[in-house]
Amino acid sequence: MKVILKEYIYKHGVAGDVVDVADGFARNYLIPRGLAIKATPGALRANQKLIERARENRERLLAMENEAAAKIDGVELVLGVKAGKNNKLYGSVTTRDIAAALLEKTGVDINRRRISERPLRELGIHEVPVRFSGEISPVIRVVIVREEEVDAYQRGELVDSLVELGFQKRAGEEPEAEPIEEPQAAEEAAPVVFEQAEEAEAVEGATAEA
Asked: Is domain 68-164 in CATH 3.10.430.100, yes or no?
């Protein structure tokens, strides 16, 4: 179904864009929530000004993404966890955990799907890319130590779990981070001031399978 977007919709466009979406996604999610209207000839005429402003909306969204990316680039997140003697975590640090810690520290709320990392299952210092569509490709530093070591690390002390893994730098200094795999091609992303992504994806996926 062809619709006119009334707001930014993750992976689809900004307010004023005329796009094709799955019929179920339009009927069950976008239109009932007032996020889009069916692109009938009458609607296209009535919303001509909104359609003409789509380029301005895209530029404004890009500026917001660049601002958010600059704010989180290089941020260090320190997470205390339970781990065994082999430095393996009892569980994992997920992209949801990282997104929550990033929000708490910076106030920037990003969709966890933008975090280019599988669940982290070992102690250490991990460089984690975040996918944005703007000019900046932010990378955040996720430091995973044992629960009882968090305070010492934040005071700038070396902690045993990192020393054992070969990290010899103190908190606040440039770490000798483990190599990471190249992230997959970046997808379009946005600050969560516009995000309804997870719910929208769930609805779209369900309607596609129906």
From this structure: yes
